[in-house]
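Q: What does the assembled structure look like for these inputs?
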Amino acid sequence: KAGVTQTPRYLIKTRGQQVTLSCSPISGHRSVSWYQQTPGQGLQFLFEYFSETQRNKGNFPGRFSGRQFSNSRSEMNVSTLELGDSALYLCASGLGLQLNEQFFGPGTRLTVL
Amino acid sequence: QKEVEQNSGPLSVPEGAIASLNCTYSDRGSQSFFWYRQYSGKSPELIMFIYSNGDKEDGRFTAQLNKASQYVSLLIRDSQPSDSATYLCAVNAGNNRKLIWGLGTSLAVNP
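A:
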């Protein structure tokens, strides 16, 4: 069974631009969570989707948004990029809502110049 | 004060020794606790989770939880060089599904 896929794997943007990241969960999984990982802050929860509905949201500004499609694929968007948005963005796929069943994708490395 | 704290390390142990990794958390309402392993340049992978006070063993790994002391630990017996990674502690308060993460402890197992 294929794992979680994230595209693109690497991205370079400049301040003020916007970016869209994609996550395809494991086949049959309906939950997708997004995390931001930086050396200084570690992993921080962005949001979680289940069956196209946002179930939880972390403490990030409104520039960060996401959505989930009927096939469970999810996208997150960051508008008006700032230097501090440079990070590894990880998505985690889950069959249901059990936290012990999350499987992480390889991540998208975003660099903002 | 960060909600989940871990010593950043590096923790260095010889091959075959027991590695002990510690994590403290601030929210007394926390109900579920997770240990993830992250190799350099890779994504985290779940290795243990624990919900109740006491010990939980899985192969060479043992998770220990003490809610009164707000402390969770991970013991790795017979450490192998392949165990060299960053170990992340994550905690969930139970009233939502958000995981709060520590910054991780870097473990180096020396042959």
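Chain A has a mean pLDDT of 94.
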